[in-house]
Amino acid sequence: MKKICIFFVLLINLSVTAQIFNPIQWKTKVEKITDSKYKLITEATIKDSWSLYSQEVPKGGPIPTTFFYNDKENKIKLIGKTEEPKGKIKFTKLFNDEGMSIKSFAYKAVFKQEIDLTDPTVKTINAFVEFIACTDEQCLPPKEIDLVFDLTKAIVKKQNISEVNKSTNTNKKDKKGMIAIFFIAFLSGFAALLTPCVFPMIPMTVSFFTKQSKSKAEGIRNAIIYGVSIIGIYVLLGSVVTGVFGADALNALSTNVWFNVAFFLILVIFAVSFLGAFEITLPSSWATKVDSQADRGGLIGIFFMALALAIVSFSCTGPIVGTLLVESASKGGIAPIVGMLGFSSAIAIPFALFAMFPGWLNSLPKSGGWLNTVKVVLGFLELALAFKFLSNADLVLQLHLFEREVFIAIWIAIFGALALYLLGKIKLPHDDSQTHISVGRLFLGLIVGAFTVYMLPGLWGAPLNLISAFPPPQHYSESPYGVGFTKKNTQVVSVTNSEKTHTGLPEGAHLMPPHDIISFHDYDKGLAYAKKVGKPVMIDFTGHACVNCRKMEQNVWVKPNVLDVLKTKVVLISLYVDDKRKLKDDEVVESKLNPGKKLKYIGQKWSELQTIKYKANTQPFYVLMAHDESNLIDPVSYTPDPSEYYDWLTKGVSNFKK
User: Fold this and answer.
1) 547 sits in which H/E element
2) Confidence of residue 436 (pLDDT cuts 50, 70, 90)
3) Handedness of CA 478, 483, 485, 491 (dihedral sign)
């Protein structure tokens, strides 16, 4: 009897203490996933020396931390179990003499529960959490705390590209994209190695390491450090570009008009420099200071020797590095870092190898006019690439000043001039006088000449699949159906198999030449039409300046089986995220991603829709959707394999019919 009285006295004391002292404080917040999906987040702040227990505890242990959501009218649907942090497994004898191992949390614990609203009018969700708080010596009585989740204050969480790719199973495609960037950058680095500013420095480098190294082993070690230093310098440059602009901001810049115009001018300046008009150099004082540090020897001397190489060779490598950074920056993410890794590796590996094995120098060709030829060829390529950026700006503004035919004509002129140069018919300022050209130069001239001839039919409407990513799309043309062909009517494929073909287009629709795919540019009108004709919706998040979008349209969409699905089995809604047309006054709203800023342009509206609803911000991005706006299949991004894309289309359409 005495023990029972003592127990009740202890329990009363603990109850009084619990009312005064609350070792665990709770607060809530909400994250918005889509228009109907939310994540309810409950955060527990735990005082020092106290613990909170898991949702699952051994039999005979403490009561588990349990969440109860008030939903008598079934207005919400819980998706999965409540997520909890990792916590720690602790052994305790608080609950029996033998003791047990229990998962507990200290200092802070965050619980997350994803829900789906079945009633869109719900603004708040009430809940309560039941828990017990303990130290190593004692526990407070179990307690219940009321929780309120305010959906009107939900935060729209921005996700980076890697999170988006996990949700859409596009990791492999991203890896392929980065491998492609690395490979192109590596080839560019090899081209830079063969320029007059870099190639002659190989013997100088070998001489430096021969003098510095007392043994062969030391020479190999120094050479490796030298190569790593070169890579580190250029990768640091790529990291700075990514860090300054931000991974996602770089992708957004690729459709910015001023960004494209600025880099058109920069690349033209680079090209003119490579062609021999002038040289772009860094201040000579930089090279002098760095060179003086290189004489110090040791690891510091080797690093500054690598930095001296980067500075002295800038007049040749600068334009190539600039072009790579521009191109990789437009891809977003860590592409600039990957690009610089590939570029620097191509330069570092040969320098390091020749430093390790000086005898190889005897096998190198002598410096001469061929180095200037490499530089001039790069100049022509820079000039051709520059017009891609000017074309992007024209596409975004939809000025139609730089249509497909004009772009192709300029490229024909540039590559035609390059072919004549390689064949010795054109000479530039720094060229040596030659009585003949080499066999290699002749073959390269013939290849460039054949490429020039290949582009000629493009002036009359040929698709030019080899360069489909560069010129404007076929519908952005003076003659979208080909020269000499006039579309006399706008026949549309029947909306159902039982209906006859009719002329005229639905409200808000247009035809995409030259294959006449019906497409809507307005989300609501496209969805309304899909409901009317009983077809699923395919949303195409695209952009006027999107390179991969053009590849999909001209290389994948044109395949007969894919084209049949797009024309007869789905309603296509193409939403251009870089559409610079202004929204109507009554459509201007505050951005949910950037509170305080207004959405002023049509493209901003579609870009925010894609980011909020689908957690993606890259284009192209394809969604197959039912009439209730739910996904029929996981969305996909750039899918260059026609059979893979067709399988995705057919699976989504078949899910709509179920």
Assistant:
1) helix 547-551
2) confident
3) negative
